[in-house]
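Newbie here. two chains, one complex. Structure please?
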Amino acid sequence: MKFFITFIATCCISIASYAADIKLQNPSINIKAPNFTALDSYGNNIQLSDFIGSPVILEWTNHECPYVMRHYDENNMQSVQKMALDAGIVWLSIISSTPGDQGHVNPNKANALTSSRAASPAHVLLDESGEIGMLYGAKTTPHMYMIDANGILRYKGAIDDIGRGMQFFDASLEQAKNYVSSQMSELIANQSLAISSTTAYGCSVKYNYD
Amino acid sequence: MKKFFLACSLLFCTLAYSNPVETGHARASLITNLQDSQQESFYIGVRLEMQEGWHTYWENPGDSGSPFEAKWNIDQGFIIENVEWPTPVTIPYPPLMTFGYEGDVVFPFKVFRSLDSELSSISIDFDFLICADICIPEKASLTLDLSTAIPNSLVDAAVNSLPIDFIQTQSFVEGDHLKIKFKSSQPVSKAYFFPREDNLFAYTTTQKWDRLSEDTYEIAVPILNDEVGSFSGILRINDEGFQVKEELESAPSMSLWQAILFALIGGLILNLMPCVFPVISLKVLSFVSMGGNDDSKIRNHALSFVGGVMSTFLSIAAALIIIRSTGSMIGWGYQLQSPIVVGILTLIMLGIGLILLTNINFAAGLTTLGSSVQSRNDYSGSFFTGVLAVVVASPCTAPFMGAAIGYALLQPSFATLPIFLALGLGFAGPYLLLALRPDWISALPKPGAWMETLKQFFAFPMIATALWLMWVFMVQTSGDALILLLILGLILGIAIWMIATFKGRWKWVGMLATFLAAIQMFNNLPENTSELAADSSSEQWSLTIESDLQAQDQAYLINFTAAWCITCQTNEKTAFARDKVKEYFKNQDITYVKADWTNRNEDIAIGLARYERTGIPLYIFWKPGMPGSKILPAVLTEDILIKSMQ
């Protein structure tokens, strides 16, 4: 664990001009999405490159975050997941909460959440070191990424256009423009997307910052 | 479920308001600085006393989080506005960074009321996100009875420490950072720039800053891409916050070479602008009449003219540098902010017009225009025509010229001179060419009687220019002063007539009379006394109007204009005064703001400097949804104007 943080910090210091900051990466749109390896909730070793040939959607999540809770309580996230499943898109839910922090779960709890919420991710990835989160610059839960069948990153940002602000808790999720579901067909066609980068909103990803 | 909540809140909302309210992780209360019941404006503060380790957010929360939302419940006769957010602090959760407030914070809101309204209860639904490691949306329904409220000094303290003052910055993109240069008379021990836009900058724990000189500092803020057009935010210096708002000139910022190129092209185009064209045309005529003369004579005349142009541009540059060194904000056309200069120019224009209609040949000075054929060896005539051409050019701004001069004036002095030099070279370009290749003059039409007719015709654009300058003069001073100027014009007319008609001594009597009358008039000239009447369809400009209107989500167009700016006046007529445009403003709910720079105004100069401009016209447009305001083209028609606002 300590090793990992040191490792990432060393990487980042060499890239970032300002030492002392553990810096999030900021992957570019329309170029190859960074590859990663992780364990899923069933103990399988998953690599992003395994899915070349199918589009992939990454969802950063934290089941205790009020923003995520609302998206799941109103069946909004699940319906997008269902759409992706029907379209042959691989959905990866990623939990980057550090052990002891909000949203951190063990594999059993992760699977229980999937079934109790009737969610349909292809895999739930446990990223408790935060390695993948920082690689992708995930800042909030939810934070969404869309990758096409050739492994090209096509979208990063918010799930919809409600945006940051307390209006989230009053706004209608149904009437919002969902950036993920509305751009799935272009993703499947391996095209660049009209809206490719937005500001994600939600709770912060609970990285290990101590 | 949702409906149920709604019904519930409708039923119980009046009961649910209280003060203070424990929201879970904070105690929220409403406080005021209202002292007596006769106050028309005062402040109400929402005080949030957060538990140790918890925080809430600034308007740009950083990497995550959310700003509060306030819904006021007020009686008629009251207006409440959120003046400005308090200066935030950094709340780092590496690798994430958020901006907000910890501990005990007061959010002040300004209240305006009409005095006939009753001081009663005022209430608010205050929704906010409060976070430690985890985030919780909390809510306070607060009420305050203004008739019994006790003034709380915390409100005054919060208002006084609001970041209201603008700090002037000069920024440019270098690599993956935006370097923001600012001045501080206080020694800086720490600095951090909080960007208001949420998609331009990376939020880091620290921002590197350097001291460049005695009072100049530079802070480097990492950017996400180099397409920073405009940005704003709060610069926290030590523990004090300042507003920053800047429009980067065609990012990445213009280079010196680009500015010089723009100046060259701008100078060339300046020849065709309405205030210069008549004077220049006369010079061209004089060259035409020189066709067939020997080349060296043509060359010398052309060079004298170029010399006149260049030395005048350099004098203006020198004057600008000197005035700027005193700390004044000035710009192109500033000469015309003095009614005395405008008065003298009016008389010059009028005089030239009259002379063109008669057949007088002044042997020297300004008046050798167009008819200097006889005085072949008098190169000073050509020189002074050059001077005159630049002087009358000052109210005109050519395309490209504004950007170049704007750049020049914000640069150190060594960069100002080459740009003005380039402007002069561009302006004098055609004549310089003539000096190099005098034989090209044969390409111009053959001299003949048509020249005399054309010369007389040019009297009318000159007199038209004089009329326009009279109007400027009247706007700057008063109708009474204008009459004085017109009387002076009459005396000038008589003097010219005397010179044309009589010989010998009488000529000098005429000149002397004009001279004495001029002295008399300028002694009695009133100071800039006119209060420029705001026209009813537009709002008065102020230094904070942009941030105010943006805070209200109100679309706006700002028109920086002046009576002496002829391009501005043309745009008024061809765009702003048109019904289609007025209708568009009305339908789209665009607030039309006029910043009138006819008289000297330091604030407007600062406003222009925010857009790296020192001259006008300048049109600024913003509507909700745009990340920053944008600069509209300098030459407008109704179609261009409407299209650029869509």
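Moderator note: Chain A touches chain B through 33 residues (CB under 8 Å). Residues 98 and 207 of chain A are 6 Å apart (CA to CA). Thread marked as resolved.
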